[in-house]
Amino acid sequence: CLDREAVPRGQMEIYPRAKDEGGYGHDADPASVMLTILDVNDNHPYIQSPV
């Protein structure tokens, strides 16, 4: 689970696999990617006192 409030930016190592026609995709090399998680308001508004 990715949570922007916990970690807004991070680095992750992935292992992409290339597969051609008839290939099995057994070869993989690690690739480092930088992730930036955008903010989405996933919390309901909180009203402290009525107007």
Automatic annotation (TrEMBL):
Record keywords, A-Z: Calcium, Membrane
Gene Ontology BP annotations: homophilic cell adhesion via plasma membrane adhesion molecules
GO MF annotation list: calcium ion binding
Start and end residues of each Cadherin domain: 2-47
Intracellular or extracellular location(s): Membrane
Gene Ontology, cellular component aspect: plasma membrane
Keyword Translocase: no
Keyword Membrane: yes
Cross-referenced PROSITE patterns: CADHERIN_1, CADHERIN_2
InterPro entries the UniProt entry points to: Cadherin-like_dom, Cadherin_CS
Identification of the protein by name: Cadherin similar to Le1-cadherin
Organism: Caridina multidentata
